[in-house]
Design brief:
The chain is an all-beta fold and 392 residues long. It contains one helix and 28 strands. The strands form seven sheets. It has a four-stranded antiparallel sheet, with no helix packed on it.
Length: 392
């Protein structure tokens, strides 16, 4: 996908970027446990998610805070002003989990109801309109969801019976309903599969069934569907692998999967080394990386990826011009490089041009690009090393 097309679809100003832009984000919101004191100047979030140019976190109380770019209302505080520190989302709703797209945000309430806010030019808020919303707005359909993920301009969620529903942009088939038409309210993915997990990328979606078999649909031009081809798919297709995965994460135009044994596989675009196999050559099927290391979690961003080893070391690889790998440099890495500062993270989330994580003590840190305040430090200064997120 060319740079101008991505900028148009994400509603971002062209003059600020000269390379491909993202979303998003993506995968499952990870709940962490406190096992030590919080760091200075940080606050204890249960989960944190990094999008294209904004970030959100959920606290144990169910309160949600967002920060960063807010021109589309994606921070959800009723304004369109960028926020450099965590800012409370408007309303009295309590949320269990949250995920962020490029210019929008979605969350699940404690009753399993979905809410979205931000830009809505392609129906990604799921409220039946194309109207921008500055505060949480109910998604139509009356479904009770167990999980929710946000891609570039689309979202997907799993009903209690394992049925997957998606809404928003569908230009590349990322909703999986077979139509290729945008949807302003949730539509069921056309399959008999029952999903246990979903992952949403820039314009593709993947899911796991109860046996750990992986399926993907949507944009496939870079091999990110893992089906051995480079053709877009409007219905789910099986990933070509003998592996059974315990976790999936969909990035810009690449995907990663983690087995229950901690083996990590990635596939798709690899222009910046985001697959982590030591090359810049893409692949249409899963390839194992870092074979000497076992991992407990993985998260794919726009053009970079991050993972946490079972030994609590945090690694990132791929594009690094904004310091999003957190290794203190701005050099792209073709192999996993350890995040600096010696922090032990319980979860990590790779966004568009920045990354955020929560330490085992419950402290939030971010690193990378910060021109809209997405690091949450109270300034617009970027950082190639983890810096603490300010307390709300």
């Amino acid at each position: 996908m060319n740079d101008i097309r991505i900028q148009r679809r994400l509603g971002l100003p062209r003059h600020r970027f000269t390379v491909s832009l993202f979303l998003f984000s993506l995968l499952v919101t990870i709940v962490v446990c406190d096992s030590g004191p919080s760091g200075p100047g940080t606050t204890a979030f249960e989960s944190i998610v990094a999008g294209g140019l904004h970030t959100c976190g959920v606290m144990a109380t169910g309160d949600v805070f967002c920060w960063g770019m807010n021109s589309g209302g994606q921070v959800g505080d009723g304004t369109v002003f960028d926020r450099t520190v965590p800012t409370a989302v408007s309303g009295s709703l309590e949320f269990e989990l949250i995920d962020v797209g490029a210019p929008h945000t979605c969350a699940l309430g404690t009753d399993g109801s979905a809410y979205c806010w931000g830009l809505n030019e392609l129906g990604q808020l799921g409220d039946g309109t194309f109207t921008q919303r500055l505060e949480p707005t109910p998604v139509l359909g009356g479904h009770t969801y167990t999980s929710l993920v946000s891609g570039g301009l689309h979202n997907c969620a799993i009903e209690t019976d394992g049925t997957a529903y998606c809404w928003g942009d569908n230009e590349d088939g990322q909703l999986g309903d077979g139509s290729g038409s945008r949807q302003t309210s949730p539509v069921a993915v056309s399959t008999d599969l029952e999903f246990t997990q979903l992952a949403a990328g820039l314009s593709h979606t993947c899911g796991l069934d109860s046996q750990g078999a992986a399926y993907c649909w949507g944009s496939g031009g870079d091999g990110q569907l893992g089906d051995g081809g480079t053709v877009d798919q409007v219905l789910p297709v099986a990933v070509v692998t003998e592996q059974q995965f315990a976790q999936l994460s969909a990035g810009g135009n690449h995907t990663c999967g983690l087995t229950a044994a901690g083996a990590l596989y990635c596939w798709g675009n690899n222009n910046y080394g985001q697959l982590g196999d030591g090359s810049t050559t893409g692949t249409r099927v899963p390839v194992r990386i870092a074979e000497q290391t076992t991992f407990s979690s993985v998260n794919a961003g726009l053009d970079h990826s991050c993972a946490i080893s079972t030994g609590r070391a945090t690694y990132c690889w791929g594009r690094n011009e904004d310091g999003q790998l957190g290794d203190g440099s701005r050099t792209d890495r073709l192999l996993p490089a350890e995040v600096s500062e010696g922090l032990s993270f319980a979860s990590v989330y790779a966004g568009g041009f920045h990354t955020c994580g929560i330490t085992v003590g419950g402290s939030a840190y971010c690193w990378g690009r910060n021109e809209t305040g997405q690091l949450g430090t109270g300034s617009n200064e970027s950082s190639s090393k983890p810096v603490p997120v300010s307390s709300p």
